[in-house]
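Appendix C reproduces, verbatim, an entry submitted by the partner laboratory led by Prof. M.T., so that reviewers can inspect both the input and the predicted structure.
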Amino acid sequence: MDTEIFSEKVDAVKIGDYYKLVHVPAFAPNIAYGDIVKVEFDDGEFHFDELIEESGYSVAHVIIWKPECRDKVISTLNDFGCGVNTHCKLPLNSLRLKV
């Protein structure tokens, strides 16, 4: 079984010994915008170690099958007050929401 390994950079601000995420993670299944996390510094980069405090936000992944609907979906979600982070990996368009 082939497993693709990748990394994701998420913006964060330092709070004491920890970091608060200020960007919606696109792929991490166990963290969300506003969460406070512990990180390790290894090989010149920070790496997620553990969740310290949940923010109360959730991340929902939305896949748009019809590219012509993408802008309308994003506009509607923004109207509902959701933070939207887009990622396009052909042939699909996908969105990550802060809900």
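Helices lie at 70-79. Additional entries are available on request from the coordinating office.
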